Amino acid sequence: MTLHLDDLRVRHLGECRHDSPLSAMLAAKRTSPHYVAEGDRVLLEDTVSMLAEHGLPPEDLPSFEAAGPRRKIYFDPAQVTAGIVTCGGLCPGLNDVIRGLVQELTVQYDVKRIVGFRNGLRGLTARHRDDTIELTPDRVRDIHNAGGTILGSSRGAQDAEEMVDSLLLRGINVLFVIGGDGGMNAATNLAAAIRARGLDIAVIGVPKTIDNDLPYTDQSFGFQSAFAQAANFISSVSIEAAASPDGIGIVKLMGRHSGFIACYASLARNAADIVLIPEVPFALEGEDGLLARVERHVRSKGFVVIVVAEGAGQDLLAERGLLEGGATDASGNAKLGDIGGLLRETITAHLTAAGLAPTVRYIDPSYAIRSVTANAYDSVYCLRLAHAAVHAAMAGRTETAVVRWRRRFVHVPMPLIISHRNQVDPDGDLWMSVLEATGHLGQQQPLLVER
Amino acid sequence: MTLHLDDLRVRHLGECRHDSPLSAMLAAKRTSPHYVAEGDRVLLEDTVSMLAEHGLPPEDLPSFEAAGPRRKIYFDPAQVTAGIVTCGGLCPGLNDVIRGLVQELTVQYDVKRIVGFRNGLRGLTARHRDDTIELTPDRVRDIHNAGGTILGSSRGAQDAEEMVDSLLLRGINVLFVIGGDGGMNAATNLAAAIRARGLDIAVIGVPKTIDNDLPYTDQSFGFQSAFAQAANFISSVSIEAAASPDGIGIVKLMGRHSGFIACYASLARNAADIVLIPEVPFALEGEDGLLARVERHVRSKGFVVIVVAEGAGQDLLAERGLLEGGATDASGNAKLGDIGGLLRETITAHLTAAGLAPTVRYIDPSYAIRSVTANAYDSVYCLRLAHAAVHAAMAGRTETAVVRWRRRFVHVPMPLIISHRNQVDPDGDLWMSVLEATGHLGQQQPLLVER
Amino acid sequence: MTLHLDDLRVRHLGECRHDSPLSAMLAAKRTSPHYVAEGDRVLLEDTVSMLAEHGLPPEDLPSFEAAGPRRKIYFDPAQVTAGIVTCGGLCPGLNDVIRGLVQELTVQYDVKRIVGFRNGLRGLTARHRDDTIELTPDRVRDIHNAGGTILGSSRGAQDAEEMVDSLLLRGINVLFVIGGDGGMNAATNLAAAIRARGLDIAVIGVPKTIDNDLPYTDQSFGFQSAFAQAANFISSVSIEAAASPDGIGIVKLMGRHSGFIACYASLARNAADIVLIPEVPFALEGEDGLLARVERHVRSKGFVVIVVAEGAGQDLLAERGLLEGGATDASGNAKLGDIGGLLRETITAHLTAAGLAPTVRYIDPSYAIRSVTANAYDSVYCLRLAHAAVHAAMAGRTETAVVRWRRRFVHVPMPLIISHRNQVDPDGDLWMSVLEATGHLGQQQPLLVER
Amino acid sequence: MTLHLDDLRVRHLGECRHDSPLSAMLAAKRTSPHYVAEGDRVLLEDTVSMLAEHGLPPEDLPSFEAAGPRRKIYFDPAQVTAGIVTCGGLCPGLNDVIRGLVQELTVQYDVKRIVGFRNGLRGLTARHRDDTIELTPDRVRDIHNAGGTILGSSRGAQDAEEMVDSLLLRGINVLFVIGGDGGMNAATNLAAAIRARGLDIAVIGVPKTIDNDLPYTDQSFGFQSAFAQAANFISSVSIEAAASPDGIGIVKLMGRHSGFIACYASLARNAADIVLIPEVPFALEGEDGLLARVERHVRSKGFVVIVVAEGAGQDLLAERGLLEGGATDASGNAKLGDIGGLLRETITAHLTAAGLAPTVRYIDPSYAIRSVTANAYDSVYCLRLAHAAVHAAMAGRTETAVVRWRRRFVHVPMPLIISHRNQVDPDGDLWMSVLEATGHLGQQQPLLVER
Questions:
Q1: Measured between CA atoms, how close is C180 to chain A, in angstroms?
Q2: Is A362 within 8 Å of A252 (Cβ atoms)?
Q3: ipTM
Q4: So what's the pLDDT on residue D209?
């Protein structure tokens, strides 16, 4: 977390020598609260005390290169063939990003050819027979009205050299990788392989994660659409639980390492009584354990609603031998145990033993959340992110991700984006809001026993 | 815009002497990327060059007091009677804020009595017979499922002394004013009158504006819900225009001085061909004038969609004698001329003269936007804003507004909030995005002739 | 209304000689509660007393030919070129019908060529330069996700002979006309012209009306989507009115001659206090007049919500000289006076004179209703209607409309469909429900003074 | 199915002697296409051939008593205490029915006291401590904005005598039972026990089933809202499947005995490739078996979407020993085996063996469908159904259900409503539409091998 200016510098393919088509328009602009001029940078820190800790003059403070159009660009648009690929799990807004990239490349820069690779990184390899799609403004005009990705996706890594060959074969000199952890990692390796061969190909990342676990990012695209849809399921389960005597509602939401969706969705409806996230451990047994709390809720108001992130309570599963040690999924992530199932069973057993007759409503709506259409906000956000990605690529940045930081679009070196995860801070404002909203803030034990 | 630290300091009623019920929980926290500790402050500026301009040590840089709970508070919760009032036009999220205030006051601080004033500031005066509502957690539990405000609202100022009497009469020592320009202005006057009388009543503002024209605010609450709904009308009109030969779709949106709704709603659907906002003047006549552009669109793609903020083109109306000089509405704002009507008429006349047979679809959906329910994001935002407002009041801040700045909740002196308006910067990123999305960026004339 | 069997017979182009591709599947079916076999018919009447009035044996009772596939068909699918045209104002479900027609023609009957005419009947004439669209399953796959019609539309009649020429020129032998009054009238004339020339071209109508004013039809397609959207505007205006002191909410809805949308939308939210429709005259003045009632509502509950169909109260406008005598619109309909405007003005004047300070919220959301996407029910309905239309055409029916009657799809001769309008019966169940829901049923004067 | 007039007669508590408050309004009405007069009846049959089969004069044809207000009523409203109970699983519209009952009882009939029983039939027994709710117009005003039932519900039968005691204890003389099979059965038993004791208590049923499996009912309330929501999940899974190489989407929907939701939801989006319902048996193996069909879809278009009703393929589960013989759930229904799980496993195994690498997306969204808010259409329907139920009760009908038949509200004797189930007719129009829409109609084997 003690980043220095150098850690935050992005790679350039080379000097920008071409006039941008936007050059004239940009000539007169300078840094303002609404615009970050070329060459200026956006601060990493935003409080007086964090700034004071550095003890540095402003120009040496940790900061990000601002995104946006440059007067001089690296590539001659007439010579550009762009490629686009979407990787990993679905997330609202993928089609919006694709659409934004295609429109910006063609309308503003007059790029003539854009290739969409099918089925994620698999489409970038020779081994797979998967074809490509020619992407034109007409083809992408209405794609934002549907969720998912018109390019398809897949999980898992592919050989970097093989992917470089594939790019060369198709004459791609600008590649946009829209993907998560796995995708950004692959893109970093790909960019390294390109650099090792001395090739003139820019690789720009548009980081995607439905879990909002990206560092150096205000909020990942699609997150708002996702938690809004998640909130609908909390309402559904809450209505079911409230209508059943001794009703127990459990909603398992996405969040392998970070409980953002669980927190925001719970705040949005304010119908959850208990929120369980990976960042805050909890006990099942004991007076302040989950089971006792659930029982108290059922006895006092007749039902209880629990929102649980999929990554919560993995230690409890491990203790009970319910985790496959070392197992990983197609993306290379450790396989999670089924915390929802564990809750359902232990709560049912506990309440039955306590003389109640619980009716449990359990739902895992993951696919119905991932596939949702981007809402108006995310549509705007994806469009602007796509614009920034195109400007970055045309200006010759590479191994660079475009993100939004403190409401500014900035360039972040790709390795930083995968260096660690953004998590809910148990001491931070968001978790405090969750505790306030679920009525647990004033209690001596914040939510559940710290173990 | 060259604010100094002193300008950003908020008023306190006095020393905080009571232990907060949240005190234990807060003890160990310190400033982090997710939490701003008591006493720390949030920077006003966020770029290297803006910081450098000040040439000051960090502790003297312009910055805001962080919002949030304090270990010591000013009021003894057992002695608090809170009042809530909503003023001005409707905006999504009003009920969410009311609900959040009531829940936080009762659940976290154990405040026993909360009074809701009916019909805006009118309800705070003796002259009006309007009654009050007792607000309890049970009363407000489901109110966020509907738009509007359960308290009612009204426009126009009221006598400050009379309002102070009304507060005294009802024993209110903490008043929350949810309102816009007019409301914040009234709250400032009210706080001044309270101070003049040496009374111990805190006045906290939760600034509201559907136009997003508040300064020192990332985005005003309800704005996302509003522009999402506005975007639906752009779609509607776009479908109507596209289905008519020589179809003209015109959507007039809110935005007296600031075109944010017009910009964001246009970006969200990307169906607008022309966006007109108060900040960017335009000509009707001439080769680059609006009429010629409209005609070009109709001739090339068969129809055109225009989004116009209500405050755009007022100079054109004035020139044509279509503005009532000096007329003001109930809130004291200058009455706007009907730019939508002017466009409808001049475009119809121009195209008819040009041999086309335009079908014009014009809609002004203002009421259907203002009354919409807050979406999931705004619900969360309103809830957290309400929490921050309660913390501020309990800690004895007064004449203070709670807002979000650079994704941090902060305290801003009320006079600053009404000192000027946030506007779309014609040189800024947002307008650039609009130009990019409507395909006007690369043109020599940005959108329409600068006059 | 005393229809005889002969009035209900549809025209055939000739004997059905070809085996249908669906022949084998149909072989074993006979009339049941879920299927009407070939040759069987659906009764016009549904009560004992209406049946008794005829005093006829069942086979002579007024009844409709059942729609659906036939074992023998008239056209050889390999020789068919189909045409599709959409006419008149927008209505939810137009794209669903187009999509259903194209899918059924190609998938079930293996028709190779389908031509979509642009811009309504204009596209069927030589005079207009409007082109046509080749319609394929791929082209129409996702069109139901958007409102409007991909073919465009227009109002107004065209020369029948010219349209016949146009069909011949393009080799069309099956034409589907999706349209309202005007469209069905034009299709009837077109079919007559075809018959007069002895041509072998089937003309099948899919009647469309957002007002639900078609006779012999359970409910017109798109109606449910339309009134659902209309109900949203009633909610909006109701929220606005309730939040203003002396608030008056007025929503003007579609309904030239029939108040169905006004009635259903009012029932759906149950937020309307007064519903005004063309079928039930009302007075403004007098103790039971509208103005007095409005005043009573405002005085008792603080606000009032009025839903008015555009065709209501035309007599009041005429009395005041506010109707252009004899004026007609592009579709040939008499131009309506602005009843919404009259209400706004007279109510404001009346209440102001009565010492109140009304805030009026008036909205006419017509375009935002017409352009809405079909809801799930209407999507299913449109799809099944399209299937029925294709079966009718392939079996050689012509001058025939396909509609749903008593939940059965049937064939109705086109002239019958335009013979009169379906209206809200002031003595019927629907209006009784409206009176019950608005609390007027038990009053001596049903809703408003019968004049 | 060969019902006679007598089978369709409903029970009366006795002669109607009181003037209805609606009497004056009703005086002049007679049977019309929009109103069924008192004493008139609605025909059961609707085709010429079905009518001819009876060979009876109209007055002896099978027909239902029309619902609606009567001039003379049985109960003196001033003496009425009404009870309302909701039983069984959730269904959209329950709150709308409750609200409609309360409003009609109070506004039209001036009934002073209405008791809501909590937690279904359990609330009607002494054994359970569950309390009751006083229902007033104010209490129910906004309840239709949320799904579920404010009264709570439960499954399972209760002792009829005990329930009669409970009604007597509370002075109830009119009871409305909103429930499914189980609820109607219990209500029938309850009415029999009331009759046996010679008590003057009317029991009126408002039949509820999310599966639309009620006989003599056009469509059960909430069904449209339910299948619309179900269709959203088909879209979601379809988007997920399409974005995965060899993607398999499976949606399990409600439908123990009847596949209506599966059929309508599939038609609504037209995204399903295969629809499996209880009424149409299918084989897994063989050339026309499900597995081979799934493989063909995956190989030709890359993915497949399967919609399966929960009651489909139970014979396949039984064969494999995957059904608990004789097991029943709380409502006394035979426990269903998990057809979704069987499909997931056998399809995965089959495709893997065939050299494909399937990604399976399986979802069972039952709770998120049952808890949805009623859409506009269902809101209107529920309101009118509630009005009809109140009229029936006030006129002294008992053991009577109110339903809609051929778009008329009618009275059906309760035993008939539970005599059998409405099912999708494999020879009927609906299933034909499904086959047409999934492209299976023209095949020699309708959908899957008839076994």
A1: 29
A2: yes
A3: 0.93
A4: 96
